[in-house]
Design brief:
Residues 5-310 form the FAD-binding domain. The protein is of the alpha/beta class and 414 residues long. The protein has helices spanning 14-25, 52-57, 61-66, 106-119, 170-175, 237-241, 247-255, 259-262, 309-330, 335-338, 342-359, 366-372, 377-385, 397-413; strands spanning 4-10, 30-33, 70-72, 74-78, 88-89, 101-103, 123-125, 129-135, 141-147, 153-163, 178-180, 186-194, 207-211, 217-223, 228-236, 269-278, 282-284, 288-289, 292-294.
Length: 414
């Protein structure tokens, strides 16, 4: 590593790698630092269709299509009694090339992004840990300290630090600007199966969201390549991981309450260990400052239910990269310049956040809402696709909020 760069990017996930690829491709001297050995395991395998566009911007769509990952053309919901909704086929709402997306192995996918940043000129180091981000007396980021894979420490100056450190949230935690949403403190327990029964025809690669009978938890069902399926349970952290014994037993207990899933696993074989993670939803009260900006989960995390994480991380990485490039061109690396994309991004992402909040409202049923307001099927599909950065994205929420209130009143009076 050198002692100075234009841009230092922390984290080799989708947010960090896309930011590094964008600025390096514009000729900026860029260092990308990832603490783990690449490729590394990561959860979050399901891609929203709108992911196609940042991948195209990065020049990766051909490689993605040739990688052999499971095609995803739809999303489906299953109620606690096992009743299945009609699939939401993306092509019914959008016939462009983005209507087919993918269920990816994140180790391979993230390595592809990391390598693309290197191809475009970034100096990329894995197994290298950022120890600190340095700020001057005025609060401007001036550099980082890094311990490389050989244990040597480097003090590096730079003009911009991009924090893509994921839920580690390096800068946000250092500056005290991270806020956890108290209503979305979730946890996940998951593993992998071979031989799970998938959907039929073009629905065979669908992400399926399945409620348990109690509605205290839900399962994701994500078909991957090579006949493997990722299956995870999500619920409130206190419900799932506190006082109920080992995660393996909790997983089985919740599975037995999910008739939509048990019949799909009758002849399936579990592969590997049970894994757990805290999936706390959080945001940041400040997402950019003089000489620094946040991307990906370091910026904020909503929830795994609609698989928005990878798309939003890529979108943020590219938007942040464009703001940095412009900042170098006009010699303005202020927080206002580096974060100029924050407001428009947050407005679009908020529609997904609102749909997540509706999902966790026990009285809400997406099937019932569709019956009440079939005219909003396109709006719902927009959100499932990830097409949220346009003026009409939130049109359905007045009707959705009213539907939830009616359901609550009915429940109170019954």
């Amino acid at each position: 590593m050198k002692s100075s760069y234009d841009v230092v990017v922390i984290g080799g996930g989708p947010g960090g790698s896309s930011a590094a690829a964008t600025v390096a491709g514009a000729g900026l001297d860029t260092l990308l630092v990832e603490r783990e050995a690449m490729p590394r395991f990561h959860i979050g395998e399901s891609l929203m269709p709108e992911t196609y566009w940042p991948l195209k911007r990065l020049g990766l769509t051909d490689r993605i299509q040739q990688a052999g990952w499971q095609a995803k053309q739809s999303v489906q919901f299953v109620s606690g009694n096992g009743r299945e909704s009609e699939p939401f086929f993306f092509r019914d709402h959008d016939t462009r090339e983005c209507s087919t997306t993918w269920q990816v192995e994140r180790s391979e996918f993230d390595k592809m992004l990391f390598d693309r940043a290197a191809e475009l000129g970034a100096e990329c180091h894995d197994q290298s840990r950022v120890l600190d981000v340095h700020f001057d007396s005025d609060g401007k980021a001036t550099g980082v300290s890094v311990r490389d894979r050989d244990g040597k420490q480097h003090d590096i100056s730079c003009r911009v630090v991009v924090d893509g450190s994921g839920q580690q949230s390096f800068i946000a935690n250092k500056l005290g600007v991270k806020e956890v949403n108290p209503n979305l403190k979730k946890a996940a327990i998951w593993t992998y199966f071979s031989g799970a029964v998938r959907g039929e025809g073009d629905n065979d690669g669908a992400t399926i969201i399945m409620h348990t009978e109690s509605r205290n938890s839900w399962f994701w069902f994500i078909p991957l390549s090579r006949g493997i399926t990722s299956i995870g349970c999500v619920a409130d952290n206190d419900y799932l991981l506190k006082g109920r014994g080992k995660p393996e037993q909790v997983y089985q207990d919740e599975l037995m309450q999910c008739p939509g899933l048990t019949r799909r696993l009758e002849n399936a074989t579990q592969l590997g260990e049970i894994r757990t993670a805290k999936e706390f939803s959080y945001s940041t009260t400040q997402s950019a400052g003089d000489g620094w900006t946040l991307v990906g989960d370091a910026f904020g995390f909503i929830d795994p239910v609609y698989s928005s994480g990878v798309y939003f991380a890529l979108e943020m990485g590219i938007r942040a990269g464009d703001a940095i490039i412009e900042g170098f061109q006009i010699d303005d690396l202020s927080g206002q310049q580096l974060g100029k994309w924050n407001e428009s991004y947050a407005k679009g992402a908020n529609w997904v956040r609102k749909l997540v909040q509706a999902f966790y409202t026990s009285e809400f049923s997406i099937g019932r809402f569709m019956k009440e307001h079939p005219e909003h099927r396109g709006n719902v599909t927009d959100l499932l696709i990830g097409r949220v950065f346009h003026e009409d994205a939130g049109n359905m929420f007045d009707d959705l909020d009213a539907s939830i209130e009616r359901a609550k009143m009915t429940a109170m009076n019954s």
